[in-house]
Amino acid sequence: MTSLRNISSRKLLSALKKLGFVEISQKGSHIKMRRITPRGIDTVIVPDHKVVSMGVIQSILEMGNISEREILKHI
Question: Whole-angstrom Cα distance, residue 57 to residue 75?
Fold first, then answer.
């Protein structure tokens, strides 16, 4: 099974798009993505880095109301 360790921002962005997120804007190396769900609007900021740290990934999952299992299905 794939782990969230050593995931590039490109793989993370691809997985988020599969979960319904769309790119809203980019400022420098940070990409803002958003999706609308029945619960409301989820917004996440993804740094455009070769490797995204585990702490940042956990924050993205928390902000986007995404489970680790759910994101791993799409990576």
Answer: 13
Q: Are 33 and 16 in contact (CB under 8 A)?
A: yes
Provide the mean pLDDT of the chain. Answer: 92
Q: Which two tokens stand for residue 74?
A: 């799409």
Fold of 9-74: Metal Transport, Frataxin; Chain A (3.30.920)
| Bridge partner list, 22 | 34
Q: For the whole model, what pTM was predicted?
A: 0.90
Q: What is the model's pLDDT at position 6? A: 83
Cβ contacts of 53 within 8 Å, gap of 6 or more: none
